[in-house]
Amino acid sequence: MTAPTLNTSAVTAFIEAAAAAPSLHNAQPWRFRFHPGSGTLQLYADRERGLPATDPDGRSMHLGCGAALFNLRVTAVAAGREPTVRLLPDDSDPSLLAEVDLTGTASPGDPLTLLQPAIHRRHTSRNPFLEDDIPAAVIDELCGAADLEGARLLFPDAWHVQSMLDLVQDAECREACDPGVRGETARWVRTESTSENTASDGIPAAALGPGQWGASSPVRDLTNGRTVAGRGWAPFEKQPHIALLGTAQDRPVDWLRAGQALERVWLQATTDGLVASLTSQPLEWPELRWAVRDPTTAMGYVQMVIRLGYGPKGQPTPRRPVAEVLDIV
Q1: Rounded Cα gap, residues 322 and 133, in angstroms
Q2: Pairing with 173, which of 64, 79, 82, 138 sits 20 to 30 Å away (CA)?
Q3: What's the predicted TM-score (pTM) here?
Q4: 65 CB neighbour count, 10 Å cutoff
């Protein structure tokens, strides 16, 4: 069954939801193009918002765009539309990441609808979490969410978690010695007060969370030694709950699938009352990334390390106006 023609306000709502997705340093590396005649929405990578030193192959860019695509799917289904997605539809244009046909009618009771309220409540929390365990039923639900998007979510044992904490420290030392990576981080991370920051992208000082005493939790300190007025220090959980999100292969199409899986897991976690932060530092160095993989599992490539738990919700980060990311042709 064909749904009614989309109007501008409906498309704007879809893009507002899509653009609420997470991305490395909140660079928001996406653009959308809507074709009213065909009811098709195209997702493009905005390579001017790439991070060539930190993300030279564009893997993180694809993850962020995949997360935006998943938000779009959720919002479309909640509006009664069945999104038919084609990933990387044009071999001659690698910047065109997906085409979404929005002319179909969604099935009643689609479970994606249940995730829509979490889209604008999902924020990275760089705060200390409680030491409370995550119930097994919730873990199973999160793993199932990743499976539905063609990825895997694994919770490694305590030994491997400690190994990853060591890799995070190694990656942070490498970053401190790399002026290109440090410069990119400084470009996107705002240390000035909220009243002085009017940017519609990047990470504001209010979202950085406190500095960490010790190194018990893999929370990235994005300040690179810069002073943030009013920022305090705090001990973090001693035994963080870490999950590895991975795929069997490591191609751009797998990165897009992983991005959709990441957002599905995160929205489900938000719905279940969990908060989360992402740990990508060791994945940004090829010589470290292989060691993040849990050798006791069949996971091929780790695409993201997720810290989950119960604790304070994260602060929202700014978003670019829809007019900056959407073209209607």
Answers
A1: 39
A2: 64
A3: 0.96
A4: 28
**Could you tell me which residues come within 8 angstroms of residue 290 by beta carbon, excluding any fewer than 6 positions away?**
none
pLDDT in tens, 228-283: 888 889 999 999 999 999 999 999 999 999 999 999 999 999 999 999 999 999 99
pLDDT tens per residue, range 4-22: 788 899 999 999 999 999 9
Distance CA 70, CA 156 (A): 26
The residue among 306, 318, 292 whose CA lies nearest residue 142 is 306
For helices 8-18 and 59-78, angle between their N-to-C axes, nearest 10 degrees: 140
The whole-angstrom separation of Cα 30 and Cα 11 is 15
Nearest-CA neighbor of 120 among 175, 78, 172?
78
Which is nearest to 146 in space by CA: 289, 303, 252? 303
Note whether 90 and 96 are within 8 A (CB): yes
